[in-house]
Design goal:
There is one protein chain. Strand 8 and strand 9 (about 240-245) form a beta hairpin. The chain is globular, with a radius of gyration of 20 Å. The two termini are about 25 Å apart. The strands form 4 sheets. It has a 7-stranded antiparallel sheet. Helix 2 (about 50-60) packs across helix 5 (about 180-215). The protein is an alpha+beta fold and about 350 residues long. It has a single domain (about 10-290, about 330-355), classed as tRNA-splicing ligase RtcB (Alpha-Beta Complex). It has helices at about 20-25, 50-60, 80-100, 140-160, 180-215, 295-300, 300-310, 330-335, and strands spanning about 10-15, 20, 30-40, 120-125, 130-140, 175, 225-230, 230-235, 240-245, 250, 255-260, 265-275, 280-285, 340-355.
């Protein structure tokens, strides 16, 4: 776990009769997707820089804004496949916007199928049998941020209106049975669907990009996992129906597959849940930070980052120092600490890492 706004990153919060928007946060539906291909390590080119460049051309990454400049992390002219995918979400979004017009100005269509910044990534990985996987990490992008921010503030306004005094205003909640509860549950559910679709569209475009630079024909998504780790959902625990908010946590019900990534120079794990009741069928979502971004930029040198990411085709400049492996906990220790929550099915190690 580590400090977060609204709730500690690594929280599992069951509630009855209420939902806490700040506990879900603004990166609604953030999560992981992994897909196995029919490729093996020997099928990859010796120089993986071309694979990385092809992925970066196929998926908008990062963020750059300025006078007269388009944000390069969004679509200037969304491709037809993105427009078609957006159409599956547009009607429900229109119903949300009809009630809350401020959300119309969010980055919605133009962010579908894009990566974002920070700890979001796209990786080409090898498992212990040298099979090639594609793994990526992103969420509901600008529109999810807008929805989260809007409803967090609305919950705080409701608390003030009802004279509810809380120890921390980020604990502001919507009681079940109120209009705002229903509206938030609908909006957050929509954003979670957007996030899952965002990952699927990126995966499709990454696979297409790889096919353009890898000469051997290959199949993709032989095995695929797509899971959230910032979300809220209805579940039954200890005989009671509850809303479970997982912020930096993955559902690990018995037999359910999940993804627990390490840092950009470390291993990642595809796991199967053991259904630990005391954890509310949950496990961690990754390594977790040991340094703030500011601290990492101050403490980690470019030379150290280059050494820590040796053998990985990735950015090795000061712009990603805050994502360097030393900023995160050792993933092996994290996995050892949750051996009663999940079993490891596949161990992956990246050979290409794309960051925003």
């Amino acid at each position: 776990v580590h400090v977060g706004i609204g709730a500690t990153i690594g929280s599992v919060i069951p509630t009855k009769g209420a939902v806490i928007p700040a506990a879900v946060g603004v990166d609604i539906g953030c999560g992981m997707m992994a897909a196995r291909t029919s490729l093996t390590a020997s099928d990859l080119p010796d120089n993986l820089g071309g694979v990385r460049a092809a992925i970066e051309r196929a998926v908008p990454v990062g963020r750059s804004v300025g006078r007269g400049n388009r944000d390069t992390g969004s679509w200037g002219d969304p491709p037809a496949a993105i427009v078609d995918a957006w159409a599956t979400l547009a009607t429900r979004f229109g119903q949300i916007v009809a009630k809350y017009p401020k959300l119309a100005k969010s980055n919605n269509l133009v962010h579908l199928g894009t990566l974002g910044t920070g700890n979001h990534f796209i990786e080409v990985c090898l498992d212990t049998e040298q099979r090639v996987w594609v793994m990526l990490h992103s969420g509901s992008r600008g529109v999810g941020n807008a929805i989260g921010t809007f409803f967090i503030e609305l919950a705080k306004q409701d608390m003030r209106k009802w004279f509810v005094n809380l120890p921390d205003e980020d604990l502001a909640y919507f009681p079940e049975g109120t209009e705002h509860f229903d509206d938030y549950v609908e909006a957050v559910g929509w954003a979670q669907d957007y996030a899952a679709l965002n990952r699927r569209m990126m995966m499709t475009n990454v696979i297409a990009a790889m096919r353009r630079v890898i000469t051997k024909p290959f199949d993709a998504e032989l095995e695929a996992i797509n899971c959230h780790h910032n979300y809220v959902t209805r579940e039954n625990h200890f005989g009671q129906n509850v809303l479970v908010t997982r912020k930096g946590a993955v559902r690990a019900a018995k037999g359910v597959m999940g993804i627990i990534p390490g840092s950009m120079g470390a291993k990642s794990y595809l796991v199967r849940g053991l259904g630990n009741a005391e954890s509310f069928d949950s496990c961690s979502h990754g390594a977790g930070r040991v340094m703030s971004r500011t601290e990492a930029k101050r403490e980690v040198t470019v030379a150290e980052h280059v050494a820590a990411t040796e053998g990985v085709a990735c950015r090795k400049d000061e712009g990603v120092i805050d994502e360097s492996p030393r900023a995160y906990k050792p993933i092996e220790a994290v996995m050892a600490a949750q051996a009663d929550l999940v079993e490891i099915v596949y161990t992956l190690k990246q050979v290409v890492c794309v960051k925003g």
